[in-house]
Amino acid sequence: MITNVPATLLPYKQAEAVYHLRWGVETHYDILKNDWELENFSGIRPEVIAQEHQATVVISNMAALIEHEAQMRWEERRARGEVRRKHANYKINTSVAVGL
Question: If DSSP states are collapsed to H, E and C, what string results for 12-39?
Protein backbone atom coordinates (compact mmCIF):
# COMPACT_ATOMS: atom_id res chain seq x y z
CA MET A 1 0.00 0.00 0.00
CA ILE A 2 1.31 3.42 -0.93
CA THR A 3 0.24 6.56 0.89
CA ASN A 4 1.31 10.15 1.12
CA VAL A 5 0.22 10.37 4.76
CA PRO A 6 3.27 11.18 6.94
CA ALA A 7 4.41 8.51 9.41
CA THR A 8 3.77 10.99 12.22
CA LEU A 9 0.03 10.90 11.41
CA LEU A 10 -0.21 7.22 10.42
CA PRO A 11 2.38 5.03 12.13
CA TYR A 12 3.50 1.87 10.37
CA LYS A 13 1.48 -0.50 12.60
CA GLN A 14 -1.74 1.42 11.92
CA ALA A 15 -1.03 1.53 8.18
CA GLU A 16 -0.43 -2.22 8.28
CA ALA A 17 -3.79 -2.76 10.01
CA VAL A 18 -5.59 -0.67 7.36
CA TYR A 19 -3.85 -2.64 4.62
CA HIS A 20 -5.03 -5.95 6.08
CA LEU A 21 -8.61 -4.63 6.29
CA ARG A 22 -8.41 -3.71 2.61
CA TRP A 23 -7.08 -7.12 1.53
CA GLY A 24 -10.52 -8.79 1.43
CA VAL A 25 -11.84 -6.03 -0.82
CA GLU A 26 -8.89 -6.38 -3.21
CA THR A 27 -9.32 -10.15 -3.28
CA HIS A 28 -12.99 -9.74 -4.20
CA TYR A 29 -12.09 -7.36 -7.04
CA ASP A 30 -9.65 -9.98 -8.32
CA ILE A 31 -12.40 -12.63 -8.27
CA LEU A 32 -14.83 -10.28 -10.07
CA LYS A 33 -12.33 -9.43 -12.78
CA ASN A 34 -10.72 -12.82 -13.34
CA ASP A 35 -13.22 -15.49 -12.29
CA TRP A 36 -16.46 -13.68 -13.13
CA GLU A 37 -14.90 -11.81 -16.10
CA LEU A 38 -16.55 -8.56 -15.05
CA GLU A 39 -14.87 -6.65 -17.89
CA ASN A 40 -16.04 -9.05 -20.62
CA PHE A 41 -19.26 -7.67 -22.12
CA SER A 42 -21.43 -9.11 -24.87
CA GLY A 43 -22.95 -5.76 -25.86
CA ILE A 44 -21.57 -2.39 -26.87
CA ARG A 45 -24.34 0.00 -25.82
CA PRO A 46 -23.81 1.67 -22.42
CA GLU A 47 -27.15 0.34 -21.13
CA VAL A 48 -26.21 -3.25 -21.97
CA ILE A 49 -22.79 -2.89 -20.39
CA ALA A 50 -24.32 -1.41 -17.23
CA GLN A 51 -26.87 -4.24 -17.02
CA GLU A 52 -24.23 -6.93 -17.48
CA HIS A 53 -22.00 -5.27 -14.90
CA GLN A 54 -24.81 -5.05 -12.34
CA ALA A 55 -25.96 -8.61 -13.04
CA THR A 56 -22.42 -9.93 -12.52
CA VAL A 57 -22.09 -8.09 -9.22
CA VAL A 58 -25.49 -9.37 -8.01
CA ILE A 59 -24.70 -12.96 -8.99
CA SER A 60 -21.24 -12.80 -7.40
CA ASN A 61 -22.78 -11.46 -4.18
CA MET A 62 -25.31 -14.31 -4.18
CA ALA A 63 -22.47 -16.78 -4.71
CA ALA A 64 -20.55 -15.22 -1.82
CA LEU A 65 -23.59 -15.72 0.43
CA ILE A 66 -23.86 -19.36 -0.64
CA GLU A 67 -20.14 -19.86 -0.06
CA HIS A 68 -20.39 -18.23 3.38
CA GLU A 69 -23.31 -20.49 4.34
CA ALA A 70 -21.39 -23.56 3.19
CA GLN A 71 -18.34 -22.50 5.19
CA MET A 72 -20.46 -21.97 8.31
CA ARG A 73 -21.97 -25.45 7.95
CA TRP A 74 -18.50 -26.93 7.49
CA GLU A 75 -17.27 -25.19 10.64
CA GLU A 76 -20.31 -26.43 12.57
CA ARG A 77 -19.54 -30.00 11.48
CA ARG A 78 -15.93 -29.51 12.50
CA ALA A 79 -16.99 -28.17 15.92
CA ARG A 80 -19.17 -31.25 16.46
CA GLY A 81 -16.22 -33.51 15.62
CA GLU A 82 -17.76 -34.85 12.42
CA VAL A 83 -14.72 -33.92 10.30
CA ARG A 84 -11.59 -36.03 10.04
CA ARG A 85 -8.60 -34.34 11.60
CA LYS A 86 -6.66 -34.10 8.34
CA HIS A 87 -9.58 -32.16 6.80
CA ALA A 88 -10.16 -29.86 9.78
CA ASN A 89 -8.65 -26.73 8.23
CA TYR A 90 -10.31 -27.02 4.83
CA LYS A 91 -12.05 -23.97 3.36
CA ILE A 92 -14.81 -23.81 0.77
CA ASN A 93 -13.31 -23.37 -2.71
CA THR A 94 -15.04 -20.40 -4.38
CA SER A 95 -14.52 -21.69 -7.92
CA VAL A 96 -15.90 -25.14 -7.08
CA ALA A 97 -18.76 -23.75 -4.98
CA VAL A 98 -20.16 -21.63 -7.82
CA GLY A 99 -19.03 -23.71 -10.79
CA LEU A 100 -16.52 -21.32 -12.31
Answer: HHHHHHHHHHHHHHHHHHHHHHHHCCCC
Q: How many CB atoms lie under 10 A from the CB of residue 60?
A: 19
pLDDT the model gives residue 1: 55
Is residue 4 in a domain? Answer: no
Q: What is the DSSP letter of 5?
A: S
User: What total of structural domains would you count in the chain?
Assistant: 1
pLDDT digits 0-9 by tens, 47-96: 999 999 999 999 888 888 888 888 888 888 888 888 777 776 777 777 66
Report the alpha-carbon distance of residue 59 to residue 32 in Å, rounded.
Answer: 10
